[in-house]
From TrEMBL:
Belongs to the myo-inositol 1-phosphate synthase family. It comes from Agromyces indicus. Residues 220-324 form the Myo-inositol-1-phosphate synthase GAPDH-like domain. Signal peptide: none annotated. This is Inositol-3-phosphate synthase. InterPro entries: Myo-inos-1-P_Synthase (IPR002587), Myo-inos-1-P_Synthase_GAPDH (IPR013021), NAD(P)-bd_dom_sf (IPR036291). Gene3D superfamilies: Dihydrodipicolinate Reductase, domain 2, NAD(P)-binding Rossmann-like Domain.
Length: 392
């Protein structure tokens, strides 16, 4: 295992995904659950030095002051997690709650100052617990895409704008990402929010000397699409249309009911499909907020393809799951793998971590089987590199 403890700093630390991850980590450490759904717990990773679950310490930022244990009990009441599991780890959840800070706000200050305050919270967390590193993972609510601005394309102009008092140029996801880089922390964006997707910031992670990964976690419908789409392409069956409908409630459903917020999610969900099948495929997709579903998400897909002798092929799929229990093990995986990447001295986007994302940074690979092979190969190579770095 990696020497020293690793922090996970969640942006959106009291949201459903981070709360579920916190419950899961606590239950894993106490031996109450098995590591089902964790990629890094598979035999392929037995020879890869990763932080032990007991060596992962959780903290984070949020705008919500609801205690973490109360959030966990709400998830249990909705049927997602056994109430007995939540109560068994209640003391650990209270301890994590003590490490969650409200997102710093400076109404009359500059955004540069706000970035610095967020970075200070991350550094303080690391020092307080004597952590070897802190991995920052954004699992906050999806933001509306910001309007394009000239400063987004010019680093000097962006830097100047960040120093202007009272000017809110960058969205919160970008401020959190820059705070991670300023704190020297590896960073992952598990949401479709803009984050570091601003042209003027494309080299920021390399400049900061940290590895990063993103974007928008691939958990359900899109995961299935990236398994099935290569099958059609490999067999020479021409897909004519691939329609999808998503029904969900909870916080995500409410957030994505906003037409401005949903646009980035729709774009990331369809981008991989177009890359795998071609941009002439018709891909209508919509997301509906159904509050009574709570944290259960149901996705329906209808695939219409052309086969030999102009015959028609139809495939229909239904995927139903608690989306947060799909996402939570993946963010734990990411924390462990980004820890490995930093130990090995990697900087900038890690393409092989695209396995976890709809819109992977540094990679144009979307086919899931290929991504899985590349991830395992990368982890084994990086473990060797890490050992060599440590020996030197």
């Amino acid at each position: 295992m990696n020497e020293g403890r690793t922090g996970i700093w969640f942006v959106g630390a009291r949201g459903s995904v981070a709360t579920t991850a916190a419950i899961g980590l606590a239950a894993l450490v106490e031996g109450r659950i098995r590591p089902v759904g964790l990629t890094t717990a598979a035999p392929d990773f037995d020879d890869v030095a990763l932080p032990a679950f007991a060596d992962l310490v959780v903290g984070g930022h949020d705008v919500d002051e609801t205690p973490l244990l109360e959030r966990a009990r709400r998830l249990a009441a909705g049927g997602m997690i056994a109430p007995a599991t939540v109560e068994a780890v209640a003391a650990r959840l209270d301890a994590i709650d003590g490490e969650i800070r409200l997102v710093p706000r400076e109404a009359r200050g500059s955004q540069r100052r706000e970035i610095g305050l967020r970075a200070d919270d991350i550094r303080s967390f690391r020092e307080r617990h004597g952590l070897r590193r802190v991995v920052v993972i954004d699992v906050a609510s999806t933001e509306p895409l910001p309007a394009d601005r000239p400063e987004f394309h010019d680093r000097a102009a962006l830097d100047a704008a960040l120093d202007e008092a009272g000017r809110d140029l960058l969205p919160s996801s970008t401020l959190s990402a820059l705070a991670a880089l300023e704190a020297g922390s590896p960073y992952a964006c598990f949401t479709p929010s803009i984050s570091l997707g601003i042209p003027a910031l494309q080299d920021a992670a390399a400049e900061a000397g940290v590895p990063i990964a993103g974007q928008d976690g691939k958990t359900g419908e899109t995961l299935l699409r990236t398994v099935l789409a290569p099958m059609f392409a490999s067999r020479g069956m021409r897909v004519l249309s691939w329609a999808g409908a998503n029904l969900l409630g909870g916080g995500d459903g409410a957030t994505l009911a906003d037409p401005a917020a949903v646009q980035s999610k729709l774009a990331s969900k369809n981008r991989g499909l177009h890359d795998l099948l071609g941009h002439d495929v018709v891909t209508p997709l919509h997301i509906d907020n159904v509050p009574d579903l709570g944290d259960v998400k149901t996705a329906w897909d209808h695939v219409h393809a052309e086969g030999f002798l102009d015959t028609r092929i139809t495939l229909q799929t239904t995927w139903t799951a608690y989306d947060s229990t799909l996402a939570a093990p993946l963010v734990i995986d990411l924390a462990r793998l980004l820890s490995l990447a930093e130990e090995a001295g990697l900087v900038g986007p890690v393409p092989e971590l695209g396995y976890f994302f709809k819109d992977p940074w540094g990679s144009d690979v979307h086919a899931f089987a290929r991504q899985a092979d590349e991830l395992v190969s990368w982890a084994l190579r990086t473990a060797v590199r890490r050992n060599a770095t440590q020996a030197a």
